[in-house]
Amino acid sequence: MKRTLLDITQKISRKLGDTQLIPTDLNHPTYSIWQATGWRFVDILREIENRTNQNRIRVIINTQYIGADDYIVEQGQNGLVFKFIKNQFQYTLENDDYIEVTGDIEQYA
User: Fold this and answer.
1) Pairwise CA distance, residues 18 & 58, whole Å
2) Average pLDDT over residues 32-61
3) 9 domain residue, yes or no
4) Which residues, including other chains, have CB under 8 Å from residue 34's CB and lie 6 or more apart?
5) pTM of the model
6) Which domain does 68 fall in, by range?
7) Domain count across the chain
């Protein structure tokens, strides 16, 4: 399918999505699992589709930026699923932690 100039321009000038995560499973032995229900990765131009999902977003926990090696992000049935690797953190993630995600994501119905 050929892309129109308008389509390309909209994808380049698109605003970044911004959402908060909710805890799903904090008792998993390896991961602290959080979810962004109703969110997915945006389809992007072919030239930059080779970037990994972690490089397309920014994760902030309690105002601290988290590196891409500290978590795994997947597209689940109900939205984006974030698996924070427990061994990578000096503290335990709890229900009241504030986790924000910004990047190439969009909300859907």
Assistant:
1) 10
2) 78
3) no
4) 21, 22, 23, 24, 81, 82, 84, 93, 99
5) 0.79
6) 16-107
7) 1
